[in-house]
Amino acid sequence: MNEEIETGITSGGAEGAFRDILSKDHARRGKPPVHFADMTQDERIQTAKALGLPKFRVKQLANHYFAHFDVNAEEFTDFPAAKRGAAAEAFFPTLITPMLQQKADQGMTVKTLWSLFDGSRIESVLMRYPNRATLCISSQVGCGMGCPFCATGKLGLTRNMSTGEILEQVRVAAAQMRDGEIAGGPGRLSNVVFMGMGEPMGNYRSVLSAVRQISAPAPEGFGISARNITVSTVGVVPGIRKLAAEGLPVRLAVSLHAPNDKLRDELVPMNRRFNTTQVLDAAHDYYLATKRRVSIEYALMRGINDQAIHARQLANRLNHYGDDWAHVNPIPLNPIEGSKWTASDPQDERTFLDILHRAGITATLRDTRGSDIDGACGQLAAKTMERHA
Ligand code: SAH
Ligand code: SF4
């Protein structure tokens, strides 16, 4: 495994043109308890063996977890009563505990603040639409990439999340959907996007293991098609290239936000490490490898990157690689507290979209679901952190 990716892009964040920005409480923290989702099949079998359980019990556990979203071993009636407690402890330690839930859009948008084993706080957002339900999940506590318009970026990076911690957000949401706990009645969690807190490519190994377990058919995984999983990156080129080689039809989103290096250097500090040419080259190669259209994320900031000249330049940069390989998602900036940037004029948004469309580029304005509960893209900051940590 490539350590450079694991530890946060630069080796240890200590050299090169970019450094991870660490949060004040970034320190050597203990590791989260090991969970069923963190174990290889072999490790699961060994752990079962140590409890005096034969191999087929592992399959039962996988079935409870992935097919029924169930971790309450005391209720596993197909399991020997005397072993239920020990199995629960060994395989399903509590990794995430809900602290606060906020709802918007008549209960169709639900943001949950979670506490992790070490008191860290992260958030996830469930958004229900007529034909799908999308969960936006976190992959790191905070983020070290330092984008100045992003609430998570302001926190700095505390630590990477484990596969179990990432996956538990999905399991709970899938159970809530099934049980009709979200407005609109019982349904199914259909999509997962890594657009919550953190940079997924900064925690590559855990994110990839989570992706595999979200997408594998039950009982090996939750059975949410990889085509319905989106990994969003600030533009970590080695991560994009590695993901392209995994042979998974996962959707890639690249947070571009600017059509040239001068502007992007300012808006996305990571650009000083991997510039727009390198990022777009990698994004296009991802398209060639997977045949999945790449999403280009573009937060429209008033007077900064939202003018006609920017739209034209963006269109040229994308068309340089050919037709139909990218889909642009402009989104009005969700301004964060104390930010010098604000959302674009609706008229400028329309002009921006028009220019892209006329250049033959598909683009749809993203909604800002959940912005009134600070649950929209870029607003996640686990605000009660200061009070509890
Ligand atoms: N770190 C990854 C994924 C998490 S951020 C990334 O940057 O892609 C999810 C998305 O929210 C990214 O496209 C990011 O650029 C965008 N974003 C961050 N702050 C925002 C804000 N204030 N308004 C709108 N979008 C924002
Ligand atoms: Fe991190 Fe993404 Fe926010 Fe940038 S936009 S600070 S990469 S979470």
UniProtKB/TrEMBL annotation:
GO cellular component: cytoplasm
GO terms, molecular function: 4 iron, 4 sulfur cluster binding; metal ion binding; rRNA (adenine(2503)-C2-)-methyltransferase activity; rRNA binding; tRNA (adenine(37)-C2)-methyltransferase activity; tRNA binding
All copies of domain Radical SAM core, residue ranges: 129-372
Entry keyword set: 4Fe-4S, Cytoplasm, Disulfide bond, Iron, Iron-sulfur, Metal-binding, Methyltransferase, rRNA processing, S-adenosyl-L-methionine, Transferase, tRNA processing
Classification via InterPro entries: Aldolase_TIM, Methyltransferase_A, RNA_MTrfase_RlmN, rRNA_lsu_MTrfase_RlmN/Cfr, rSAM, rSAM_sf
Bound cofactor: record note: Binds 1 [4Fe-4S] cluster. The cluster is coordinated with 3 cysteines and an exchangeable S-adenosyl-L-methionine.
Active-site residue list: 123, 377
CDD domains for this protein: Radical_SAM
Coiled coil: none
GO biological process per UniProt: rRNA base methylation; tRNA methylation
EC identifiers of the protein: 2.1.1.192
Major site of localization recorded for this protein: cytoplasm
Family: Belongs to the radical SAM superfamily. RlmN family.
Function according to Swiss-Prot or TrEMBL: Specifically methylates position 2 of adenine 2503 in 23S rRNA and position 2 of adenine 37 in tRNAs.
Anything else known: Reaction proceeds by a ping-pong mechanism involving intermediate methylation of a conserved cysteine residue.
Name listed for the protein in its UniProt record: Probable dual-specificity RNA methyltransferase RlmN
Organism: Bifidobacterium callimiconis
Gene name tied to this protein: rlmN
